[in-house]
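PROTEIN DATA CARD
Card holder: NAD kinase
Chain length: 253
Origin: Pukyongiella litopenaei
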Amino acid sequence: MYSRIAFLASDAPVAQTARATFVNRHGDVPPEQAEVIVALGGDGFMLRTLHATQHLDVPVYGMNRGTIGFLMNAYAESDLPERLGQAEQEVINPLAMTVMDQAGRIHEALAINEVSLLRAGPQAARLRITVDGRLRLDELVCDGALVATPAGSTAYNYSAHGPILPIGADVLALTAIAAFRPRRWRGALLPKTAQVRFDVMEADKRPVMADADSISIPDINWVEIRSEPAIKHRILFDPGHGLEERLISEQFT
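Structure generated from the sequence above:
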């Protein structure tokens, strides 16, 4: 059983009300002193919480006070200590993104769900794709492309007709967004250890932005993406409702 709990909530009134209720019942400690963090909000807030606390090596248990709540557990005000004690842990690694913009500046960011490239003008993007130093596609004309983790494969990746990946699979999904040429190319499955590089062709004429979990870099020249095994996000789920079950269930809805 956890005795030191940190309660974090999004700005939504319903989440703030829930936090006040839990703090009144169970007390509250700073995240740095906690044995477990309870995040109250939606998936976006859960992602921000995981990023903000990744240096603490503390598990995070989410409760849905948002919309979809794929990374969250069902909300209930009773039996929280028991639920935390029975929760099952999933460990996921983020993606590391390195970007050079057209001014020659280097930017770095981490993404738990996906790194996406999106056209930023009226014309389609032209991308060249290299995997582990080997040219794999000399030209992809598209609205964009993304690399998704298994945990993020049901998010933007799935909306772009990419595959849903089992949580234990050591693979990444490389998915095209509205590909024009090659017209039927839908992407590829890559080993988790792969390093993917996108070079933007005609970057001045066809500007492209890169996004890592809502951290956006405009006017890019190239992006390199790889999994970051040194960072481990520990997420707690109620028994029988973990990421693996959710990934399977999502394919039958």
